[in-house]
Amino acid sequence: MPQVILLFSGKRKSGKDFLTTHLQNLLADKCEVLKISHPIKSHWAKEKNLNLNELLGDSEYKEQYRLDMINWSEEMRAQDYGYFCRIACQDATDKPIWIVSDIRRKTDIKWFKENYGNKTRNIRIMADEETRKKRGFIFKSGVDDVASECDLDDFVDWDLLIDNSEGKQKLEEQLSSIFGLVSGL
Ligand SMILES: Nc1ncnc2c1ncn2[C@@H]1O[C@H](COP(=O)(O)OP(=O)(O)O)[C@@H](O)[C@H]1O
Ligand SMILES: C[C@@](O)(CCOP(=O)(O)OP(=O)(O)O)CC(=O)O
């Protein structure tokens, strides 16, 4: 069982992968990074004979398949909202800190809370639209106006808010605020 689970959410191109990778490098063997999207991408890669590594990266390749992956994964979630969360946790090792880098829905937070109680911390990464556009964001209907990107817009129970817009919080500042949530471990 982990001692703390950091649940990161944020709209696409806000910097979830960027920040959680930096955090992982600093925490090294104390932490494990889990991705709810990993089983979705694995399934899709197998089904459509796609390049899984490209789907796991931050290139345009992933964006071509995002809408289909969202639609398929929503069908699965409608039957069992914890389906992908459970698979993502299955292979986790006994590291004290788990980092979940892609929380998107209230039901994701609910599932972790139900299964790990008060070990969870909710972290929201924000970036203004101009910054996200510079990082490759282009609005797409069916992607940016559905639960995948919007379900947590009205969620308020954040333990930490991070502004990852260009020219705002420095990386060191962002990381040290996250360390505040795991100090003592
Ligand atoms: N603070 C930052 N400084 C420089 N580049 C950043 C920063 N945050 C994110 N990026 C870059 O922006 C792009 C999108 O970030 P990413 O972490 O993939 O976003 P998300 O996982 O939220 O979609 C990546 O190329 C990433 O390296
Ligand atoms: C089908 C998805 O799981 C694809 C998510 O891929 P990423 O988590 O890689 O996306 P970014 O926000 O750009 O980091 C979305 C979903 O609604 O489950």
UniProtKB/TrEMBL annotation:
<dbReference type="InterPro" id="IPR027417">
    <property type="entry name" value="P-loop_NTPase"/>
</dbReference>
<feature type="binding site">
    <location>
        <begin position="11"/>
        <end position="17"/>
    </location>
    <ligand>
        <name>ATP</name>
    </ligand>
</feature>
<keyword id="KW-0444">Lipid biosynthesis</keyword>
<dbReference type="GO" id="GO:0005829">
    <property type="term" value="C:cytosol"/>
</dbReference>
<keyword id="KW-0753">Steroid metabolism</keyword>
<feature type="binding site">
    <location>
        <position position="135"/>
    </location>
    <ligand>
        <name>ATP</name>
    </ligand>
</feature>
<keyword id="KW-0756">Sterol biosynthesis</keyword>
<keyword id="KW-0153">Cholesterol metabolism</keyword>
<keyword id="KW-1207">Sterol metabolism</keyword>
<keyword id="KW-0443">Lipid metabolism</keyword>
<dbReference type="InterPro" id="IPR005919">
    <property type="entry name" value="Pmev_kin_anim"/>
</dbReference>
<dbReference type="GO" id="GO:0004631">
    <property type="term" value="F:phosphomevalonate kinase activity"/>
</dbReference>
<protein>
    <recommendedName>
        <fullName>Phosphomevalonate kinase</fullName>
        <ecNumber>2.7.4.2</ecNumber>
    </recommendedName>
</protein>
<feature type="binding site">
    <location>
        <position position="164"/>
    </location>
    <ligand>
        <name>substrate</name>
    </ligand>
</feature>
<feature type="binding site">
    <location>
        <position position="174"/>
    </location>
    <ligand>
        <name>ATP</name>
    </ligand>
</feature>
<dbReference type="Pfam" id="PF04275">
    <property type="entry name" value="P-mevalo_kinase"/>
</dbReference>
<keyword id="KW-0418">Kinase</keyword>
<keyword id="KW-0152">Cholesterol biosynthesis</keyword>
<dbReference type="GO" id="GO:0006695">
    <property type="term" value="P:cholesterol biosynthetic process"/>
</dbReference>
<dbReference type="GO" id="GO:0005524">
    <property type="term" value="F:ATP binding"/>
</dbReference>
<keyword id="KW-0752">Steroid biosynthesis</keyword>
<keyword id="KW-0067">ATP-binding</keyword>
<dbReference type="GO" id="GO:0019287">
    <property type="term" value="P:isopentenyl diphosphate biosynthetic process, mevalonate pathway"/>
</dbReference>
<keyword id="KW-0547">Nucleotide-binding</keyword>
<keyword id="KW-0963">Cytoplasm</keyword>
<comment type="pathway">
    <text>Isoprenoid biosynthesis; isopentenyl diphosphate biosynthesis via mevalonate pathway; isopentenyl diphosphate from (R)-mevalonate: step 2/3.</text>
</comment>
<keyword id="KW-0808">Transferase</keyword>
